[in-house]
Design brief:
It is built from 4 helices and 8 strands, in the order ααβββββααβββ. It is an alpha+beta fold. 44% of the residues are buried.
């Protein structure tokens, strides 16, 4: 097993968000690998970024986000969904990358069952094509908050880096009320031909 080292995350957040495309997110569950290729990400660069949770400083919700790079910020949103952000840059920076979509690779039967238990039958492209969908599919929740992503429970493998010609960028999703210039920063990255990218492309 080859896992991305902590130094991978200890870099500028926008660089990490782009470089995570093509990498493989793995969740070990009861000895089974649930895994998917990362096809969509968003960068949130710390307290100065008014779309980032760190803008509020250290709170009970966000304190973990200010930890060392290469750990998991897992948070509950809209009273119904979990989302996953690996921490980036140096400890205390408060930045991270939202994982928005995966292409399922391993453990697909369990991934499908996890999603269909809540929503009923659906096509494979709907299993992990969104940040809340992918956490539900891989059974990622608050119990994994702060997990070391260089460990053996929840981690990211090198996968296959994606060439620039296969990448598209644009503004981040769901931040309509965030003031400029943050609302329009092109800090969302996705594989342009992937059917597993969220509908927001």
């Amino acid at each position: 097993m080859s896992v991305l080292p902590r130094t991978f995350y200890d870099r500028p957040t926008v660089v990490v968000a782009r470089d995570l495309l093509g990498r493989v997110l793995v969740r070990m569950l009861d000895g089974e690998r649930l895994a998917g290729r990362i096809v969509e990400t968003e960068a949130y660069i710390g307290p100065e970024d008014l779309a980032c949770h760190a803008r509020a400083g250290r709170t009970a919700r966000t304190n973990v986000l200010f930890g060392p790079p290469g750990h998991a910020y897992i948070y509950f949103t809209y009273g119904m969904h979990w989302k996953l952000k690996p921490f980036t840059e140096n400890e205390g920076h408060g930045s991270g990358v939202l994982l928005r979509a995966l292409e399922p690779l391993e453990g697909v039967e369990r991934i499908a069952a996890n999603r269909q238990a809540a929503r009923g039958p659906m096509p494979p492209r709907a299993w992990t094509s969104g940040p809340a969908r992918l956490t539900q599919a891989l059974q990622i929740d608050g119990s994994l908050k702060g997990t070391d992503l260089t460990g053996d429970v929840l981690f990211i493998e090198p996968g296959e880096p994606v060439p620039d010609e296969n990448v598209q960028t644009g503004p981040r999703v769901g931040i309509t009320y965030t003031p400029e210039p943050w609302r329009s920063q092109p800090w969302r990255f996705w594989l342009k031909d992937s059917p597993f990218v969220s509908n927001s492309r």
